[in-house]
Each structure stands twice: as structure tokens, then as C-alpha cells.
Design brief:
The structure holds two protein chains of two kinds. Chain A is an alpha/beta fold. The longest helix of chain A has 14 residues, at 242-255. Chain A has helices at 35-45, 87-97, 109-116, 173-181, 228-232, 242-255; strands at 23-28, 48-53, 64-67, 104-107, 123-125, 133-141, 157-164, 168-170, 185-189, 201-205, 211-214. In chain A, helix 1 (35-45) packs across helix 6. Chain A has a single domain (14-255), classed as Rossmann fold (3-Layer(aba) Sandwich). Chain B is built from two helices and three strands. A three-stranded antiparallel beta sheet of chain B has the order 2-1-3, covered by helices on one side. The longest helix of chain B is centred in the C-terminal third of the chain and has 15 residues, at 53-67. Classes of the chains: A alpha/beta, B alpha+beta. The A-B interface holds A 77-78, 81-82, 85, 115-116, 121-123, 125-128, 130, 168, 170-172, 196 and B 10, 13-15, 17-18, 21, 66-67, 69, 71-72.
């Protein structure tokens, strides 16, 4: 086992050109937990991770942004409701809606922030069984054309960790029908719906496909020896989540 | 000092998992007359001085933008309570 990389040594993963030229911002809010894992995932995919602070007034020089998981503001009021009004969020919302179509990925609490920001439709409420749930979850990639899924095949099944309490995705029937018709249901739970989400929705995108949000955590499945396969052998591989981060790098480098 | 009370409830068509858990617990304590519970939120906004029409309008605006999420919740009441 000695050949496996150590979790604490992110700095030893040196990014190489041209991917290293792609700068992916990772936003930290008060109460964010998974910012370091998200930054590490970016580095393992070959990109350069840029730390961003929620109170920053400017977005700076980044090619994409990740809103990581955690409990921003302790989930007070509603999950993501206060973080959504952070100074940096207004810049991210503008950039995501601009012609440049800044790629934005919201993971778990980041997904909740995206729905509260109205960058993505619908909302998240408490899991239907009311419990916090942590498990390795099988997802089907329904749309491989978004900025964050181009390195997957449509219909591909991946296994990544899921851990949340407010994970039940809801929207009215009209919105759900529109999401389905436009191919904006990007990920669906397979085999088991862990939270009562409508139509087994695990993740969605905006119309342009640059903004994607999902409840499970791809950044926790990017490294051999530390992913779902090593823990309980449910299938997939340890690195099923890495495709999110290579996808956006492919998109950025290809588009330059 | 006067307070502006804002009441927010989950929309009727939204399943309220917390209310469901509470309605399940009531009969265990012998409260058998209640067929449904829905749990909402009450906010109290304290105002230093008089509540003008402008301040009340600000409260309504805050209720719609921050205190509630229109996708899942309704603002069911905004009223002034004189202390």
C-alpha cells in the first residue's frame, strides 16, 4: 500500500501544461467543509485550483468555479439561503449568466446555494426519511454534454459518496417535465432513491449546460485507495468522480 | 419597541417531512385528535422607532427575498405588533 499517494500531500501533485493553465476557483463560505477536497480533485485532474473567499468583491482570473459541500452558515434559515447573498455569489451569478458562460459546479451544499440563487430551478428539502445519510451511491450520467460531464458516456453508471440531510430535490411537475424534455436531468439515482427526490433526480443543469449541481460528492472519489471501491466494494471504481474535473478542463482547454 | 412579525409556511403541495414526524409523535403522547401537522417559521423583526409604510414594505420585501424561498414556501402573514 506504500505506493498510494497520501491525502495530505496535495502539493506533490504537480499540474502540467496545458491543463495547468486552467484555473478552477473553489469558494469557501463560513461552514464550508469540502473545499480542500474539491481543490485537490482539481489538481489530481491536472488543473490549477484557486482559493476564493465568499466575501471577495471580485472573481479574479478563474476559468470555472466550484461551490463545494458543507454547512454554510450552519444551514440556518434554509440550506444555502444566506451564502447565496455573499458578495462573491453575485459575481458568480453574473458570470454564469453572461455570454462567457462561466462553468459552475455546485456539490451538495453548493447545489443548495445554486437553487437558492435561482441559477438552477427547484429546491432541496429534508430527506423524506428525516435522517442524515452517508453511503456510496450509484448514479447514471443522463447527459454527457454539460461542461462538467463531457468526459463521461451518456448512460454510464458511476459510484460516488453521498452525505446529506437536506437532499430531497423537489420542483413542480411543469418544471420537472421541462427539465426532462430539455435533457437537463444530468444525474439520476440508480437502484435506490436515498432521499425521496422527485423522479430520482440527483443532479441538474441550467439550459446552457455550464451550471451543474448535484447532491453526491464526486470530489471524494478521485483517488485510488480512497474511494467507494476500497471501502465497501459496491462497484464502480475509486475514481469515478474524477471525470467531473477532467471534463471542465477538457472544455476550458478545448475552448481556448 | 414595535416588532414586525413574518410567518412563513411550506407551500401546501410541498411534503413537510418535519410536520409528518410530529404528527407521528403526537398519538404516542395521547394526543389523538390531530390528523395533520405542518411546521412553519415565525420571524420577529424589531424596529427602533415607528413602523412606517416604507419600513413595512422593506419587511415584505425581505420576507419574499431572504426569509422565504418562493419555490417551496409562502409568506402567509406580515403584521406589526406594538410592544
Amino acid at each position: 500500500m506504500t505506493e498510494l499517494p497520501l491525502i495530505g500531500e496535495a502539493s506533490t501533485v504537480a499540474a502540467e501544461p496545458p491543463l495547468a493553465g486552467a484555473r478552477i476557483g473553489v469558494v469557501t463560505f463560513p461552514g464550508t467543509l469540502d473545499d480542500r477536497d474539491a481543490a485537490r480533485a482539481v489538481r489530481l485532474a491536472g488543473g490549477t485550483a484557486v482559493e476564493l473567499w465568499h466575501a471577495d468583491k471580485e472573481l479574479g482570473d478563474v476559468d470555472a468555479v466550484i461551490l463545494p459541500g458543507g454547512f454554510s452558515y450552519g444551514d440556518y434559515l434554509r440550506a444555502g439561503a444566506i451564502a447565496r447573498f455573499a458578495p462573491l455569489m453575485s459575481k458568480i451569478i453574473d458570470a454564469a449568466n453572461s455570454d462567457a458562460k462561466l462553468p459552475v459546479l455546485g456539490i451538495c451544499n453548493g447545489f443548495q446555494i445554486l437553487t437558492e440563487s435561482h441559477l438552477l430551478p427547484g429546491s432541496m428539502i429534508k430527506n423524506d426519511h428525516l435522517k442524515f445519510l452517508c453511503r456510496d451511491q450509484v448514479l447514471r450520467v443522463e447527459n454527457s454534454n454539460t461542461a462538467w460531464t463531457v468526459d463521461y458516456q451518456a448512460g454510464q453508471e458511476i459510484t460516488i459518496p453521498l452525505k446529506n440531510q437536506d437532499g430531497q430535490y423537489i420542483a413542480d411537475e411543469k418544471t420537472l417535465d421541462a427539465l426532462e424534455a430539455e435533457g437537463r436531468v444530468v444525474f439520476r439515482y440508480v437502484g435506490f432513491n436515498p432521499n425521496g427526490s422527485r423522479r430520482d433526480v440527483a443532479g441538474i443543469s441550467n439550459a446552457a449546460g455550464n451550471v451543474v449541481g448535484l447532491m453526491p460528492h464526486p470530489e471524494h472519489a478521485v483517488e485510488a485507495g480512497f474511494g467507494p471501491e476500497s471501502l465497501d466494494g459496491v462497484g464502480g471504481s475509486d475514481t469515478d468522480g474524477l471525470g467531473f474535473f477532467t471534463s471542465v478542463l477538457t472544455k476550458i482547454v478545448g475552448g481556448k | 419597541m414595535p416588532r414586525i412579525v413574518v410567518d412563513v409556511m411550506p407551500k401546501p403541495e410541498i411534503l413537510d417531512p418535519q410536520g409528518k414526524a410530529i404528527v407521528g409523535a403526537l398519538p404516542r403522547l395521547g394526543f389523538t385528535s390531530f390528523s395533520s401537522v405542518r411546521q412553519g417559521k415565525r420571524f420577529e423583526l424589531t424596529v427602533d422607532g415607528e413602523v412606517t409604510e416604507d419600513i413595512l414594505a422593506q419587511a415584505r420585501d425581505a420576507a419574499e427575498t431572504l426569509l422565504s424561498n418562493p419555490v417551496i414556501e409562502d409568506v402567509v402573514n406580515v403584521e406589526v405588533i406594538e410592544a
